[in-house]
Each structure stands twice: as structure tokens, then as C-alpha cells.
Amino acid sequence: MPWISPLARIRDAWNGQKARDKDLRNLVSNLPYEGLHKWKQPNRHFPSNGIKTTKYTILFFLPMNLYEQFHRLANLYFVGLAILNFVPVVQAFQPEVAMIPICVILALTAIKDACEDFRRYLSDKRLNGMPCLVYSRKDKCFVEKRWRDVCVGDFVKVESNDIIPADLLLLHTSDPDAVCHIETANLDGETNLKQRRAVPGVCITNPEFEPESFTGIVVCEKPNDNLNHFKCYVEKLDKEKVGAGISNLLLRGCTMRNTDFAIGFVVYAGRETKAMLNNNGPRYKRSRLERRLNIDVIFCIILLFTMCIIGSLGHYLWLDSMSSVPLYLVLGSALDNPSQSSFYKFFSMLILLQVLIPISLYVSIEMVKIAQIYFITNDLDLYDEETDTSIQCKALNITEDLGQIQYIFSDKTGTLTENKMVFRRCSIMGTEYSHKENGVRLSAVNKPEEDEDVLFSQSFLSSKPGWSLDSEDSEVSNSQEKKSDQRHRSKDHAKSDAAFSSPLETEVIPDQKLLQRIKETERIDAYLDFFLALAICNTVMVSMATAKRPRNPHFVQNRKSNPLDTLSSLVKKAGSIRETLSSWTRPRAHTSSDIILTAQDQSRDPTEGQTCSLHVPPQGPTPAVSLNQLCYEAESPDEAALVHAAKAYGFILLSRTPDSVTVGLPSEARLSFQVLDTLAFDSNRKRMSVLVRHPISREYILYTKGADYAIMELLGTPCDEKLQKAIASETQQHLDCYAKEGLRTLCITKKVLSDSEYESWAVTRQHALAAMDDREQLIMESAVQIETNLCLLGATGVEDRLQDSVPDTIMALREAGIRVWVLTGDKPETAVNIGYACRLLEQDDLVINMSCKNQVTCTSILDCTLEEVRRYSNNPLNVDTTPDISLVIDGQTLTMAMSPDLRERFIDLVKHCRSVLCCRVTPLQKSDVVKLIRDKLQVMALAVGDGANDVNMIQAADIGVGVSGQEGMQAVMASDFAISRFKHLKKLLLVHGHWCYSRLANMIIYFFYKNAANVNLLFWFQFFCGFTANAMIDHWLMIFFNLFFTSVPPVMFGIMDKDLSAEMLLGLPELYRTGQGKGTIVHAAIILGSVALYFTVTLAYGAMYLNNSGYWNLQAQMADPMFYLVCFISTVVALLPRYLFHVLKNSIAPSPIGQARRLDTLEPSIRDQWIKEWRSFRGGVQDKTSDVPIPPSPSLESLDDDSIMEDDFTLNVVTEKQQRPANL
User: Fold this and answer.
1) I need a labelling partner for 873 at 20 to 30 A (CA). Which of 119, 900, 914, 1045 fits?
2) Is 1096 within any annotated ligand binding site?
3) What tens digit of pLDDT does each residue of 277-297 get?
4) 705 is in an annotated binding site
């Protein structure tokens, strides 16, 4: 190893820091420098792949741990007093004895920290020692190394089912299309596969990639924790720049799937990988009780200093009143000067009375919270058998906040609903198709006694792609065989690894009217485009259901050929078809396993006028692919529902690569489209698009789907403007009807681009993709540029069912005094329908609908609304009642209402509202609403959601709850508590929240009470000893009072206390608002054990004590009967006033808790009857689920313009008669 001067080392370290801080990094291959010294490596400034998450080392554990513990002011306080006790003039008792409590507390905390750090060390060792394949220039092949040996600039080979060791820029794969599939469950919890593509134009040594041939420079951005964005480009020798993004990056921790191998260039390693930057460890939040506890400790300090000042003054007056120093005091000491002596006695009193501040309180609170979390996580009522998941507690120190929630902010889709999207209705070219048969089956599934798999194994109608209207009779005759086959398929779906693949989502019954329409129509271009858009305008990946994915994180060395390779090779050989449709040709009868991939004729001129046919006869025999082997990997349930709907009509998504997508037609033919670009969905545009080149007409076609309000304003003015306007008007009415039925709606459009338009736009798009600055903004602007003058094809309506017991849960939460807000991106009509279904809105509520388009109108609306609310509250009929006011507001109005000028009025309005429904809101608006209400009203807020769009809202609330649904685990990973069903929120808050808060609050009071009683005993004794800071109790016994004698009873009180049973708390949700504790057999045993421990230790200590002043004192006292009489009378006299107060209170004006406690002692049947009478007497909300029908949706025929929300203020009082809103 060559000698390097210290100056050179300092200079190199300085240059390394500058290289790491740069916004852009230039990375080159390590292969030319293999074998050279570290100082000659070009990428040496960047960290290696070894990780270290431990906080301590063996050598520096003690000083670092003590430094960390001394950040807690209480520890500094007690250490300071212990050190002060070593000063002779202020010494209250033996210095060594004073050190025992703080030493025990610091030692216990240090042991806990050491155990946690040792577990982190073992985890780091396991990860750093995992094997991987790294290319060696010396060996001319990939050699096995450990993860810790991988460096930036290395070439790593990842094989199928292997875990990716570092962030790799994908350069080559075994797939002919240069793609690979990864599973990101370790990062975001999503089990669906994601496609990654090799950087185009970099691998020039196909079919085998030679890393030594890579001579480019990789320029990438500075490491960050954004898992969805990555800026990079590869600069070749000829200075050509090839852009790369997140679609070209393999993230550390992901798993390679369905790909034999992939080779990547390491851009980030170790602690700089995106996975490690997102590994922030457990979150720390301070609970409200903890903040209040700090205030209580401050008051205790003030009381302590007051008592010390009184003692100091008392000692001065006592000495000053004496003519000479008493004989029993030491002569020649500071006692000769009363002023100086009283000053020293202040510190002596401070040491003596220090137990007023409980030293073990914080440690006891941590122990109690750990036990509370144990009981919560092991509650079987919070376990979901379907998903095999139980509740997770990630924030260990805010359990008591669950009992103080005042506002709940909830997402709708996936949180209140199942997030199982079922295709229900559609509208094509202004004609509506209701799919009644599918609705009948769905209504049967909604019955609680029916099983989803069994129902969907009973086929009403074949939903297979090779359908034929004339073959229905034969299908009926073979119904038994079909039932058996579909029952088997339903079980396969239930066990599928893919998300959104339950029978409820995959089985779609085609509409007979739509089938007849297609049969009778000669030119069906619009219908073809509609179903093609459903099939290809998405990011759904196609895999084989037979290729099961292993779920273990270990390496699997077996190598199998990918079934997608055969399919991809067939897709590449595809041409185009050309035939004019003159009449409908019925296809031959076949089963779903007989779909044939046919070649297409590309010999004719593609520019000639053509009409696409759904039934192109096969050109020759080709291999068959069974539909049962196709498995769709979707990122959202909406996409999966639309793809399965297209499949039900014979438009089958067969394969997808970065450059092409293949769709099977009902004619057994297929179309292979060249994918030119995919404009991903974002919350600003509210839509996504796919730009393809048609294989027949060779036209550039843009298929777009998105929210109706985002699509309708982008429609163009074609030649037949009158027809297009009529179609748009009819489609809008259908959309409004769908929304009133609670369906999620999407609009489907098409746009044909000329060659010049596409070429001009492609240049702009390429510039945006290669940009390093403002890339996201430029990409969005390029998408907006092309998504104009769209041609409307139709619309879809997808249903998302409510989860079980959602209405009961919301009603219970409202009875508990919690105000519930629902924040959703759906249309107002859809949201209102769901609001009534989940009983967020009631039939007799005053429902205020707010919708406006400008600031002036919004101001007028708020003023008018506030006046109406005040008039409603002042109505004599509403005196002594809670106003049942609900607010419905859209996102645009919400933005204006939250502006600085109108914010106070909006806050004043929502304070009067029992529930609020916010529609058309963005993820950013969700978090802004939570912050506004929490900060302005100073309330405890809980946010619950299931998707990535709810993360900001969850993190903004005091408590974030994630629902482990079908859209990954982003919300769960960002939350404090994770549940699998919304109904679990009821017991989590009303039972466990009440218990945790009641137990911990009473335990803290218990601590302060016992310490105050002990200190008062010592303080009042000072009046009899001249305030000399002496004690009538032995110093060892004083120290053990807090440390041993009285430490267990409060802890057991905080863990085991149960003021009311779970059944009582669930039956009477109003009890959530307050609670007091009561004793149990466990508490009695612990208290008696504490007393016995005190007498045992004192007797033993007295027998061994060598000082005559304490020798056998307690034994002598216990021999006198008066001792027992004094103990008994003192206890009775101390507790009698409190017990007398509670007896009189519960007899004259009993509290709800007291009444409920008496009911809790009755038999269950009698108790339930009393609960019903109580709820009726106190005005509790009864279960009106069977009596309250869901507001009926207007039919398509009766829909008029008045039912569409205008830009005005609508104040609704919805009654049992379903009166129409009155416009003010």
C-alpha cells in the first residue's frame, strides 16, 4: 500500500464531499481500474454497498448512550441532585444511597438500547453477507461476491427470484424486448409486477452483453428518497445523450420475477440507495398526555421549590429565635450564621424532597404502553381471517391518544369500500348499456349469507371471449360442465398472487343489448375503438397464471424458460390485416382455451381506406394459448375491471411490451399495436393516455381515459359537430346517472394524429424526457399539449361495494362524539350516494351542498350558509338538541373556502357540522384540510386511508391509520396503526382507546398521589425538627419507596385496569368521552404484595442494622396493638372523605360511567335490554339500517337538467319523503 500524505488525504476527503454534494454525478465503469489501488478508483468518493444501521460500537457504547439519555431533562435533574448530595454542607443523606435510583434507571435503559442495537447488528450482518454476481474483468465472467463488496460503477447480474442488491441502471435482460419484471413488495407492499426496460441504444453487443464494451458516462441526480422519480442520462463516446428514468432503474430490495436474468450498472449503493433513504426507522410522536405530563412536572417543580423555600425560611426563623446554638448541633459550622445555614438548607431540602418528581414514571409509562400494544395486537376481534392479517402498532408511544380522538378524516375508495371494482354499466356513442344480468349477480353477492366464490361459479351467461348469440342454447345444455369448470376457476382466482383477481372483479356478464348491437352493425369502428381503448389504455401487465412466484426472500437457483417469450416472439412476427366488413360472420363455436393467435397480412398498402373487422378468418395454424393461463397484473382496480370487461366481449389483452401491445379479437384474430408513448396518470391532469400506431391504417392514435370533468373540456369540434355534441350530451346524462347510483365513472376518447403532428410532438416529448431540470413539469406540459381535440367514444361505470359494518361503525363513532369527514376524489353525486349508504348522511339531516366557481360567489355562499345554520340552531324546535347538519363541498369550492380571507368563516361553519363530505379533492387538499382543522380548532385528528394518495393526509394527522387494502402498503407503511377493515376502527377507538387513555391517565395520577403523600409526610415532619432536612424514615427505605415498594402497583394498574367491559363500551359509544378506573383482584393482590414487601424488607433491614437508632424498631412497634389501630384508623380517615363524596355523587347525580358500571354487573341478556332503554332514553341513535332506504337514483329516462348541480348554493333538508333540494 503506497504511503499517502495526510494533506493528500484531507484534500481527497474534501473533494469526495464536494462530489457527493453535487446535484449531478458523473459515473464511469470500474472495469478499466480493476486491481488498482483504492485511491485510483474513479468512483471511490461514493459509499460502498455495505450498510450500518446500528447506533453504537462496543468501545463507545457507554458514553454515547449516556449522552443520549441525558437529553431527557429528568435524568439530568436527578443526576444533578445526586452530585449535589456529595457536597458535605448540603448533604441530606448518604451520597452512595442517593445514586442508586438514577443508576438503576440509566442501567435499565442502557440494557434495552443495547438489545435493540444488537438486533440491528445481526440484521446488517445478514444483509451485507448475502451473495450476488459481479462482473470481473480478470475472470471475464460474473463472479460471486457479497453485497458489502459491491461498489458504484460495478456491473451486477440479477437472476430470477433474486433480490436486487443495489440501485441498478438496467442495461440488458434475457428478454428479447429488453424488459424485466420486478416485485416491489419489500418497498411499497405492492405484489403486482412492474415492468422495467433496459436503457435503449446502450447495449451494442446483442445477444450477449459484454460489460467491458460499455464506455459511456452515466450522469444521474443526487440520491433522494423518491421511489417514483429518477433523473439520469447516458452520454456515449459520440456525445449522444440517452435519457433514462424510473422505468430503467432497479431498486435495492426488489425481487426479480419472470425474467431469467438482468444486468445493471450500480448508480447508488449502501446508504444512498432509495430503499435505505426511505428507511427512517420507527416514527416518534409525542402524545397529548405526554405533553400534559410535562406541564404537570413543571408544576411539581414549582411546588418542590416552594416547599424548599418554606423550609429554608423556617430554618432561619428557628435558628434566629434561639439565643445560642443548641448543644446537639455542631459548633463552629455554618449553623453559627442563620442566613448562611438557611441557604444551605434549601439545597438539603431539595435533595430530601426530590421524590416529589417520580424518577421511575417515564420508564413505567414505556412499560405500560408496550403491554397495551401487546393486548391490542393480540385482540382476535381485530384480526381479519380473509386476508390473514391483524392490527399493527407502529407508533409505540401514542396509544392513549386513541381515546381522545375528536375528528376522523377518511378516504372513501378502499377505506370505506372493498376496492373491488366491478364493471356495471357503459355508454358507447350516446347509447347506454345497463348490464342488468351483471347487476343481478352483484346484488346476490351483496347478501351477507352468500359466498362470493360460490355465486360466481354459477354462470348466468358465458363471459368467454368466443361468444356467439346463436350458441346460447348449447351453453345451457352444458351448464353442469360449465359450472364445474368455473367453480374450479374461481378457486384458482382466490389463490392467485395477482392483485384485483377475485371472481367478483374478473367475471363480467356481457350485455345482450350490446351484443345485438354489434351483430346488427356493419361498420363498428367506434365500438372497436371503445373496447380497444379499454384493453390497451392502461399499464396492466400480462403474465402466466401457471408461473407461481415464490414468497420467500431467499435465492432460488432453478431457471425456467419464461412463457412470455413464446408469446412475445409471436407478437413480433405480426403484420396487419385488411378486409372490408360486408356482413356479420358468426365464428365457429369454441371454448376459451381455443383462442388462436393468427398472422396478419401486411402486403397491401396501409394507406388505403379500410374498415376494421372483428372477424378476420385465420390465415394459418398457429400455437394456441389458453385464457386460463393469462394473469393480469394491474396497479389499480379500475384498470383491472376495464381489462376484464373488454375480455368479456372478446377483446383480450394478450401481451404487453414496452414497444407493443397485442389484443385478441372475437374473430380469433389479433391486432398488434406499436406503442409509441404512455402518458401516465397524475393528480393534476386526472387522466392517462396511450399513443399507438394502428397495425392496419398505420395511423397515430391517442387513446385517453379519465375523469369526466377533465375529459369533457378537451373535446374537439369534428366535421359532424352536431352529432358529436349530441353524443357528449347523452353521455353526460349517463355519467350523472351513474354517479347518482354511486358508480365510479370514466370517459373514453380517441384522437388521430397526422404524421407532422406526431413528429413535431415527439421532438418536444424527447426533449422533456432527456431534461434534468424541471423534468416532471416538462413531461406534464408535453402530455397536455397532445391531449386536445379529443373525440368522445363513451363512458364506463364501475361499482365499488361498501365494506362490512361500515354504517354501524360510522354511527358508533358519531355517537361517541367524533365528527367524521370523508375526503374523496369522486364526483359529488357518487360521493353523496355513498354517504347515504354508509350513514355519513342521514335522511333527516340538514344537508348543505356548496359548489361555486369564483371567490365572490364563495363568499356569498359562506355568509348565507352561516346565517342559515344560526337560524336553524335558534329554532325553538331544535332547542336542547344537537343540530344534525352535514356539509357537501367540492374541491374547487374547498380551495376558495380555505383561502386566508374565508378561512375563519369556513372554520365557523364546519364547527356546526356533524359530518362533512369533500368531493373532487386532491391528495394535497386532503392533507391541507387535516392541518387546518387540527391547528385551528386545536382538536385531536385521526386520518385513515389505504392508498399512496392518502399518505400526506395520514402523516398530517395526530394519528394515522392505514388500511391494508389492494393498492399496496404505502398507507400502511406511513401510518401509526394498520388495520385490515374499516370496522376495526370501532373497537380500536371505543374500547382500546378508552382503556389505554383511562389506564394511563389514572396511573400518572396514582404516581403523583403516592409521591405527594410521601413528600408531605417528610415535609410536615420538618416542623418538628427545626427544618433541618432530617427524616424520621431510614434513608434506604426512602430510596426503596419509589424504586421497589410502590413501583409495581401503578404499572399493573396501567396495564390491567378495566373500568368497563368491551361489550358495554361498544353498546354505549357515548362512554368513550370519559372514564374512571376501578379495582380488580389483580390490583388488590399487587397492593397487598407491595405492603408485604415493605414490612418484609423493613424487618430484615432492622434486624441487620448496626446503628442502635434503627435496630429492631419496627419489631418493637409491631408488638404494640396500638400500632395496628393507628394504621387502620389513619387509612380510614384518609379515604373516608373521598368515598363519602363518591357515594353521595352516585346516589344523587350518578355519572354515565357509574351507571354503566352497575349495568356491567348484570347478566348479558338483562344488560343488553338496559342498554337499549338507555340509548332510547338518552336520545342515542338507533339502528335504522332496515328502515332507511338508500336514496333512489333517477332513471335515465327521468333525468333532467335540474338534477345537475349548477353554480349556486343548494341547501337540502333530506326527509323521509325524499324531497327535492330547494335552491336558495
Assistant:
1) 900
2) no
3) 877 655 567 788 888 887 888
4) yes
